[in-house]
Amino acid sequence: MLSAIEIENFKAFGERQRIELRPITLLFGPNSGGKSSVSHALHYLREVICEGNLDAHRTWSGGDVLDLGGIRNFVHARQVGRPIRLAAEFSLMGLELPDYWPFAGEELPDDFERVRDQVQNARVAIEIDTDDPPMLRALTVSINGEHLAEFWMPKERPHAEIRQINWMHPIFMLDPSQREAIAKMRTALGDGTADATRTGTEGGEAGSSGPNHNPDISEILGTLAIRFAEMGREPAPDAAITIPHPHGPLPDFGSRVSIVNRPEEDLKKVWEFESLLSMLLLGPATALAGHLRDFRHVGPLRKMPTRHAEPKEGLGRSRWSTGLQAWELLAHGHDMVAAPFEGSGALIDQVSRWLEAEDRLDTGYRLERLQFKQVPSVVAAMVSSAEFVDRVEYLADTIRSLPEHSRIVLRDVGRNLLLEPQDVGVGLSQIVPVIVALLTPGGFLVALEQPELHLHPRQQAALGDALIKGIGATPRRVLLVETHSEHLILRLLRRIRETTRKQVVAGQSLTPDQLRIQYVRREGSVSRAQAIDVDVNGDLVDPWPDDFFEQDFKERFT
User: How many angstroms separate the CA atoms of 272 and 252, rounded?
Assistant: First the structure.
């Protein structure tokens, strides 16, 4: 699960801003205060990590809604030359890290499992040089809150190079007993100085200082550095570790790191060493790509299929941003089941329940899928001809061979009428994609812009319960919700209060550590994000900045 992002020199954010994320993260703030820059940074991070696209205009996750305009447009204050820095922190299970094991069919060595079991969270940070053309200046990896390595891709070389490795990172201790020795050594060195924890020079030239230049490390048996020494060599200098075959401007995270001038007498041990290093150095970026790849963004103005049109199957760039992907899933996802705690039934039934139930949105409508076939006019003419009775079997076979189509319609429950989405209020067309995005499994990250659009206050409050359901549809999911709705947040605060008092209905429980409120506003020429904490009673620990929700009081009593 993504737990925090850092943004620097990107759009509204100049100085570095750390924005903590929780399963439900609400972004509040005045218009043009910088809220959208938070989700746009995630779109750009996905483009860089998953697509290798540094000069992004259209993005995969933004579809036809978001156009970043290229790096000259989204670097802060359009000051080309200032580096853009983005970072993502995320929790993971060790099994999410690819093993890079080259021997198919063989069991992984015990070292791999011991190392994987230690991995709890990671941080991947990128620094983009915004000159023309833009290039990756550095990519750093941290594990369990501590710097692990930095690598970069020189312009004139066909590979990326490791520039810094913290050989004293506890993750390198294959024997747990050695971690205590590392802690004692750091205490003696003054909490781990730069010389002790980061080796290699800024230039990263071959032959630069490596872990073999720190004699204390060689006294700690069981480290990965010593594993390399056991092969008859000194521990590798950082610059002697490369990543071959880079993919575009980024290292190829799918390739195993390679030791330059590696010994040839025992290649299997070298490959084991390279695989284990790859899991730690490249695995976190691969895991982050997995978190971002299915980034689901529902834009602020959702579309609906045109009248009598059949939603398409097969997607290129994401259509979540326009809302059309929701209608496509409803029309064609026959076997797709929503969150298991919603009970049995297909996705369309679960979405209908949210639209229809009195304790939910209570719109008075439910969804239905029409199955139909388009009959050619010549076949229709034969039905009305005198020869119909004689050719009924032929006509039946012809109709059975025609492809089947699907279309989503709405049933007015009170009047028992079937209606096209265009025949009902616009609020319904706006909320259907939101509910589908929340209930559909998949997507570790879901961004919703103004989900309350065109809903009346009671439905805005019910949307808070839909968010709670949404974080259960996919484990470790983060909902990033840009909103102005006071009713929505009041419902979430009420659920926290009821959960504390054990008065909450099953499936509606929410705790303070599942909710994060971020207030984003402009201060001078830059935007800043301020976290607002919530206590177990559902009360805000700090007051709203700028009297954000005090307008009703002012209008009544001023």
Answer: 19
